[in-house]
Amino acid sequence: HESIPGYISESCLVYKRASAMNDDLKEMLESNKESLKLEAMKRVVGLIAKGKNASELFPAVVKNVASKNIEVLKKLVYVYLVRYAEEQQDLALLSISTFQRALKDPNQLIRASALRVLSSIRVPIIVPIMMLAIKEAASDMSPYVRKTSAHAIQKLYSLDQDQKDLLIEVIEKLLKDKSTLVAGSVVMAFEEVCPDRIDLIHKNYRKLCNLLVDVEEWGQVVIISMLTRYARTQFTSPWKEDGVFDEHSERAFYESDEEKTRNEPEAKPYMMDPDHRLLLRNTKPLLQSRNTAVVMSVAQLYWHLAPKNEVSIVTKSLVRLLRSHREVQYIVLQNIASMSIQRKGMFEPYMKSFYVRSTDATHIKSLKLEILTSLANEANISTVLREFQTYVKSQDKEFAAGTIQAIGRCATNISEVTDTCLNGLVLLLSNRDETVVAESVVVIRKLLQTQPTQHSDIIKHMAKLFDNITVPMARASILWLMGEYCERVPKIAPDVLRKMAKSFTSEEDIVKLQTVNLAAKLYLTNSKQTKLLTQYILNLGKYDQNYDIRDRTRFIRQLIVPNDKNGALSKYAHRILLAPKPAPLLESAYKDRDRYQLGTLSHTINTKASGYLELSDWPAVAPDQSVRNVEVIEPVKIHHFIFPSTAHPTPALHQGWSWSTLSPKLQINFSGSDAESRVENSSQSSEESDESSSQSEKSSSESESDSEKKKRKTKTPLQKKTVKPTAKDGPYLSKCYQPTFCSSDLFIFSLILSVCPPVYSALSPLSLSFPLQVSGPAFVPEKSHDLLHRMTGKGLSAQYQFPRQPCLYQPTMVSVQISLTNTSDHPLEQIHIGDRSPTGLNIHCFNTVECLEPEASVTVFMGIDFNDSTQAANFQLCTKEDHFSVSIQPAVGDLFLPITMTELDFRKEQGELSYSVNYKKYHNHYLTHLVSPVPCRFAGKTASSGAVVLVTVELRESSTALITINTEKSVMGSMLLRDLKQALAQA
Amino acid sequence: MIHSLFLINPSGDIFLEKHWKSVVSRSVCDYFLEAKEKALEPEDVPPVIHTPRHYLISIYRDKLFFLSVIQTEVPPLFVIEFLHRVAEMIQDYFGECSETVVKDNMVMVYELLEEMLDNGFPLATESNVLKEMIRPPTILRSVVNTLTGTSNIGDTLPTGQLSTIPWRRAGVKYTNNEAYFDVVEEIDAILDQSGTTVFAEIQGVVGACVKLSGMPDLTLSFMNPRLLDDVSFHPCVRYKRWESERVLSFIPPDGNFTLMTYHVNAQNLVAIPVYVKQSISFFESGSGGRLDVTVGPKQTMGKTVEGVMVTVHLPKTILSVNLTATQGSYTYDNGTKLLVWDIGKLNPQKLPNLRGSLSLQAGAPKPEENPSLNIDLKIQQLAISGLKVNRLDMFGEKYKPFKGVKYITKAGKFQVRT
What we know:
The complex is a heterodimer.
Chain A: H1 3-30, H2 34-49, H3 58-62, H4 71-84, H5 89-102, H6 108-120, H7 127-138, H8 143-159, H9 164-175, H10 180-193, H11 199-202, H12 205-211, H13 217-234, H14 240-254, H15 257-263, H16 274-283, H17 292-305, H18 315-321, H19 326-342, H20 344-347, H21 362-375, H22 381-392, H23 397-413, H24 418-428, H25 434-450, H26 456-465, H27 472-484, H28 492-503, H29 509-525, H30 527-542, H31 547-560, H32 567-570, H33 573-577, H34 601-605, H35 652-669, H36 673-689, H37 691-698, H38 704-714, H39 717-720, H40 743-755, E1 764-765, E2 773-774, E3 785-788, E4 796-801, E5 814-822, E6 828-837, E7 842-844, E8 849-852, E9 857-865, E10 873-878, E11 883-888, E12 896-900, H41 903-920, E13 924-928, E14 936-942, E15 948-957, E16 960-967, H42 970-986
Helix pairs in contact in A: 1-2, 2-4, 5-6, 6-7, 6-8, 7-8, 7-9, 8-9, 8-10, 9-10, 10-13, 12-16, 13-17, 17-18, 19-21, 21-23, 22-23, 23-24, 23-25, 24-25, 25-27, 27-29, 28-29, 28-30, 29-30, 29-31, 30-31, 36-37, 37-38, 38-40
Chain B: E1 2-8, E2 14-19, H1 29-38, E3 48-50, E4 55-61, E5 64-70, H2 76-94, H3 99-104, H4 106-116, E6 117-118, E7 121-122, H5 127-133, H6 139-148, E8 178-191, E9 197-211, E10 217-222, E11 228-233, H7 239-245, E12 247-250, E13 255-264, E14 274-282, E15 288-297, E16 306-313, E17 318-325, E18 329-333, E19 338-344, E20 353-360, E21 373-380, E22 389-395, E23 402-416
Parallel strand pairs in B: 8-23
Antiparallel strand pairs in B: 1-2, 1-5, 3-4, 4-5, 6-7, 8-9, 9-13, 10-12, 10-22, 11-13, 14-15, 15-20, 16-19, 16-21, 17-20, 18-19, 21-23
């Protein structure tokens, strides 16, 4: 009796202790000392983490929500609030105003965190407030806040589904966002709120495809899976063989010739939609992601969308994932299992990667077995079977049993090895392990059923083993075999039945049932020997404890023992019981799994998970493709007149190429009257502003003296110029075939030309939009550099120069023009390029110059990929006798190609670039002496990687200007700036 | 997406829970615990469990179960990958991932989890970003914290998340600027009884420890990049550059990270550094058997093979072992039937040998299969595939960094069938 009060007091104590602790915490939270509060909050969060209830403290905690002092305390309070607000709605409302205030904070991170907490408080009353906050955040300046708002959309939606329409509007808005930070989150929201609104994706499809590589890894997974669904609704099937071909032949059969001709255009060969191709192309690099989920999602995208012959590029990456964690292996193997059933060839070369190790987990082993079985074919079956032989001996008996089933499947699938397998299985019957024997019996039974004629030996063998086999399923299988093929073993079968009659009562139910079956079959075929035995067994069965057995016995008795009442049926007994039975199909458990999209949860659990979105079938006819076109307000396309560098003759080929590509565009340029007026306008102003340009206007090719003159002239405008700001908000029209300049551009332009030849001219004054379009250079410096002096070159002298044309050979290369002159007195033979360093250097060599006569010179072109660095390219210039090490050093400006974009695009691009750049401190502001009434913009991209480089020159005060360089190429940016500064300083 | 997370120890106690949406009762774990009871080994618990209302996706790592609760369709790998990131994050912060460590740092772990997901969708999983928000503990800092009552939560707001290179934090400064790279290769192999290679391949990892100030832009090139058959990269690596020139160009994260993993073409012959002569036999009578294992160097490229260890899972019917090792020492755990022979360095002159008798439980039949041997080994200063780093260049910063590359070859899943 004493122990019970002891118990009670102890539990009371625990309770008291808990409440005392809460009191303590409450006191601490209400104290004035921040450190005490903090300590208390830490303990409270600790309680939450352990899953203990701390809701009592709500009033005490919520008071601290507005704590100004420490960021830390605030964060912990937020954690608490989000956890318990749902339970204490009224009190939670007290905190709302704090968050509303924080939503207006100048710091983007505070705004974001306020929105995050506000939207996590699951209190229905504040839905309107949340809605408002989300809407505002969706148009926030900061992409981070916009990202948070995308997350908040899902939270609000789960709280109140009535907001759907309003939320869709926000999603629509955010889908247009160009920030990579937002893309993943908003697509997530889209998938959760309105996955059926595929129309919202059209306009953003190409953008999403292009952004994909730069989106954070988790967002990539979500976007890829959404785009997979999208593509299946918008494009036609690339798997032409099955669909189109059959249809065609059918038509040929049914339709008259006339109709066929009418329908002919329909049967034209399949052309993949460029957007479809874009998706495939842009997801491919992600196969190299370190994130296994990303790799898997690309793999499933290829599986569901790519033409059959392209799917196999994912194989390698999937096999790579098998090196990852066990759980990853599990999922990947499941997917491979599904794939390998349809496409054996995909994984066959990697068969060895699926070999089982004794250390693998059970579920991994059985999946590998599954895959090996699917991959087995005539060619590799012997290897597979040898491998299976080792597995059968495994200590893990469940796995060994699985292997036996796998052998059975191989035996049925590949008829060549059926006999070998069967013999192997028969050998296993003498195995010491019961499970192995049992499984073998079952599999043999299935195999024998497929070819019953030849195997009476095996049946006899099994009958012999019967006494030693104790596993019920195996015994039952043998009995069934005896009965089914009793005519082939007429002597043994009755003997087995005799034994069974003896042990009937102690057998398992399944064995009893088969004994009854055997008895019945024998009675029908060999009643003389077995009549008594059968009757005995039927009598035993009649009084069995199990319903089924009593039932079966009754049924069998009525069926086989003829009596007066049911003579009709017993006539057919033989046909009923001994009807030929179809062989069981041994097939994979993964056979129909691919009805679910690969990589999904539904695929893994093989049932439809809630929220699973079906992948639709390909449409027969592609929906309108133009829906994906993004309307760009077609700005006037501008192409820069190429200042032919007169210092050295440009070969016809080169020039011809650049003109021919440019000229068609020129026609478009001047179709609009707007453009014309602008041309006029600017040409006027350029006349006013600069003589040199008007000169250049007159002649399409400048003479050397002209350009020199220009240089001279443009050194002065600092003092004398007032420039008309034209084309402020339109694209800047800088030049066209007849070179005309927009004044402001020209101004800076010419200034730059004069001051900074190596750099600026490579960037083009702006115009057009994405995709980045390379335009001709605005200025080509005539300066040529010595490559090889005639003294060191033993008479061969070489000079190089950058013509600043897009390279013919490869877009990533910079073209270099080399003039070779023979200053010696004998002809030089076989001038060519030899070894280069660094060895990886990508050079397109010029054709070997067979012979160069004395005093003759020749100009050749080569392409060098500098990888966007100013590192010199070293190589050897060889003649027949000698070789000379030479090096070409590009200036920063030589590594850019001018591009055209609209001002709008420029600003957007700038916004995105400056973001990273700003943070990374790549963004440089320098004040320089420049005069220009409007900001001038120059756009270019690096040759090798295609990174955009944007330069803005802006007037700040009367005598100062601001140069901003936006680029992700930090090094290039700073070098460009350095060169610019130098050049301007000289000016 | 991810609804809740439970951390469960091997005995089935839930010691941490975190919910990112509404609270899910921990009774949902019962389904999991049931499955765990059924499984023989913790590794055998199925990673995905389907319950009437939820889906449970779990990983088993460092003797802990990370169990996440899912309510709607989500790619399972997405969840699994994330759970591993959680484990890696704990490891990264506290030096190890274990129940005690999590319990000791409960609040911090909870806060980290809070930052990692928003509404169940990953928000900040980069260690560099997290460390800016929540500073990892150091001894000094914890002393200061206890004295002053401050905490490890950073006062600065994370800027990394805002940048297009979220993996690197801003304003990194070191007095010694260093960049070290470890090329670690693992040989996965299955050898059969006769010593023939059934299957062999090389998997490599280039790990990095980069402590460089500012925003360095690094380029790492290999002498023989053709060897690499399949690769995967840290997000910092510029894929296009790799595609076109086979060099790794990247702005590195600060601190330790895995730069790339690769796979060496299995079609080429893989050098197997050791050979194993073994004979394990059991007497027909079933009373016992003999074991004789010798390990010797094979293709070692002139390097010493170290850290050699042979692990054998003996059959369950073994009662005891009586062995002698000519080198190193062996341990045998009768509970798990695990025989571990720690050899150490391989001496080609005097090959280590382990031999002796095995006795079986009375009346037990002769074991059907001989146990396979798992080999562990290490070779310093050698990448067995022959991969070599050519050079490392740095752009974007002025100082001269100290650079270093280390090679090491290990046995991965190296199994000898007997």
